[in-house]
Design a protein that fits this description.
By secondary structure, the chain is α+β, with helices and mostly antiparallel strands. The chain has a single domain, classed as Aminopeptidase. Helix content is about 25%, strand content about 30%. It has helices spanning about 20-25, 60-65, 85-100, 120-125, 180-190; strands at about 10-15, 40-45, 50-55, 70-80, 105-110, 130-135, 145, 150, 165-170, 175-180. The strands form two sheets. It has a seven-stranded mixed sheet. Strands 8-7-9 form a three-stranded antiparallel sheet, with no helix packed on it.
């Protein structure tokens, strides 16, 4: 694949099927699809899929937090051959797509996991707003459970009879993007 200076001009973003992005999901560090997915997007260059974004419905408390239809950018993957800033470019195109094709969506939210070396630089570069850490409001720490190197978020997910270790959960960076102008104006007044 040729990623010369005009690769963005040769790129398109389109809806994708679950099957089309399956190999990308498998290579993503979480290795699984989100639960409820309203939108999957693929990034193609010269008709080859080189990236994807999956939006999912977040938990109810996230929707309540932002007051309106909220989607979570739950998976992002871009081929290693895509030039620098490819992730940010894909995020920007995905935001534009959601704004145009899904006008009922008010807010997008995503997370950067420091436990996997993510700090949110790609979201900042795409003009998303930092919104604290996931555990900022918690009174008690959360834990994950390690079984033979594999992590589980709930004890009930651990296979029966397995020996496990409780590991403090790393708080994630949270970022939001408000799609509606009135929400962006309110955000600007707060800062």
């Amino acid at each position: 694949m040729d990623f010369n200076a005009d690769w963005r001009k040769r790129s398109i973003i389109r809806h994708a099927t679950k099957a089309e992005i399956e190999t990308m999901i498998e290579t993503h560090y979480l290795h699984k699809h989100p639960a409820v997915v309203p939108c999957r997007l693929a990034m193609l260059v010269d008709s080859h899929i080189v990236g994807m974004i999956v939006f999912a419905y977040p938990p109810r408390q996230t929707i309540s937090r932002y007051g309106g239809m909220t989607w979570e950018l739950a998976r992002l993957w871009v081929d290693d051959d895509v030039p620098r800033n490819g992730e940010t470019w894909l995020i920007g195109r995905a935001v534009k797509h959601v704004r145009q094709a899904h006008p009922t969506v008010d807010v997008l939210v995503s997370y950067a996991d420091p436990a996997h070396g993510h700090n949110g630089l790609i979201y900042r570069a795409a003009n998303w707003t930092p919104d604290g850490m996931t555990d900022d409001e918690r009174r008690t720490p959360r834990f994950d459970y390690r079984v033979n190197g594999k992590m589980y978020s709930r004890r009930s997910h651990i296979p029966d009879g397995a020996t496990w270790a409780r590991v403090p959960r790393v708080s994630k960076h949270r970022f939001i993007y408000r799609l509606k102008k009135q929400h962006r104006a309110q955000e600007a007044r707060k800062t």
